[in-house]
Amino acid sequence: MKTAFIYTENFMKYDLGKNHPLKPVRLKKTYDMIVKYDLLDFYVEGKPASEEDLSLAHSKEYIEAVKTGKDLEIYGFGTVDNPVFDNMFESSLYYVGASIQCADYHRAFNISGGLHHAKRNKASGFCVFNDCVILIKKLLQKYRRIGYIDIDAHHGDGVQEAFYSDPRVLFVSMHEAGKFLFPGTGDTAEIGTGEGKGTTVNIPLAPFTSDDIYLDMFERIVIPIMEEFKPELIVTQLGIDAHYLDPLSHLSLSLKGYREILIRMEKLSERWIGLGGGGYNIETVPRAWTLAYSIMRKKEIDFSKIWEEEVAEIKKYESLIQNARSFAESTYRSLKAEISEYFSI
Ligand SMILES: [Zn+2]
After folding, report:
1. 293 CA distance to ligand 1 centroid (A)?
2. Catalytic machinery residues
3. Centre of ligand 1 from the C-alpha of residue 125, in Å
4. Model confidence over 23-41: pLDDT tens digits?
5. Residue-range domains of the chain with CATH
6. What is the dihedral of CA 46, 130, 127, 101, to 10 degrees?
7. How many angstroms is it from 152 CA to the middle of ligand 1?
8. What is the pLDDT of residue 2?
9. Which residues, in sequence order, are bridge partners of residue 229?
10. What are the C-alpha distances in Å from 306 to residues 99, 113, 159, 235, 281?
């Protein structure tokens, strides 16, 4: 089985401005690196989504506003995070379209996707349309149990909101805790509602959370609950802004830890859709997503030289990492109290 890689030069048009941290060139650099290392398994040219697709996650009024450029400020645009930009509607259609295309393959990666903050009626956190929600809604026409794992440094609030009462989607987000970072949500007490109670799981972490803490939490929480839920496939938001060199978050993941998480994801499900997400260090992003794609397609690239340096660098913060370790312990305890009724962790 081939692992599809969806790409188009049209991704470059999602350009929020010269001083904005979300630079589309990080996608081009990733694509170039994947080609350079001869990893491209199955190339798929990205196509735009339709307006009907958008309506799976967004209101008619919101779609119309983005399309026509009218009344945008009502919908969260015109801010530093979400400026109005040229080709906003058209370029967003390509991001969403590529995520939808992933649904056609056994394994697929859309590095432009993972825009997990966009809400039904609101642009948020650099995100215009929520491709994660649209993709999962599409998948739900065919599947009954979908696992969503979000390792972006920021809480996946838009995705959580869309499936908060839906028991068919097990939503799991590991992120820097809301009291330290945007969007402020993602507490352990947010576990879903109604029929969906117990299928939203949040793992807030403290600044300086490092590889071993991440892996410990992943193994003690994410793996057992996913194994118990038995998803037919997993959708993962693979943001790399938890990396210690990222300018927007305060977490201390290295490429080594990122790799370990990906290897565990790989074992969780044969059917796997990877989406991009955050990541604002222009050197780190292409490496991380090249590594991710190489693991998805079972032809892993060796970046150990790079991460050995990173791990040595991160060790210098050992006392701060200790605080993050105790924070994670208390997250584990409160999460266990919240979800032990639904999962045996
Ligand atoms: Zn993020």
Report:
1. 19
2. 117
3. 8
4. 999 999 999 999 999 999 9
5. 3-339 (3.40.800.20)
6. -10
7. 5
8. 96
9. none
10. 30, 26, 33, 27, 15
- Beta strands 42-45; 233-237: pairing state: unpaired
What is the torsional sign of CA 161, 66, 53, 49? negative
Q: Count other Cβ atoms within 10 Å, centred on residue 106.
A: 14
Structure-block tokens of residue 190: 């947010």
pLDDT by 10-residue block (mean), the chain, 345 residues: 97 95 97 98 98 98 98 96 96 98 98 98 98 98 98 98 98 98 98 98 98 98 98 98 98 98 98 98 98 98 97 96 98 98 95
CB-based contact 233:271 (threshold 8 Å) = yes
Residue with tokens 């584990």: 332
Rounded to the nearest angstrom, the distance between the alpha carbon of 10 and the centre of ligand 1 is 22
Q: What is the 3-state secondary structure (H, E, C) of 5-59?
A: EEECHHHHHCCCCCCCCCCCHHHHHHHHHHHHCCCCCEEEECCCCCHHHHCCCCC
Q: Where are the beta strands (DSSP E) in the chain?
A: 3-7, 42-45, 107-110, 146-150, 169-176, 200-205, 233-237, 272-275
Q: What is the pTM of this model?
A: 0.98
Q: Which two tokens stand for residue 54?
A: 């958008």
* Cis check: omega of the bond before 183, within 30 degrees of 0: yes
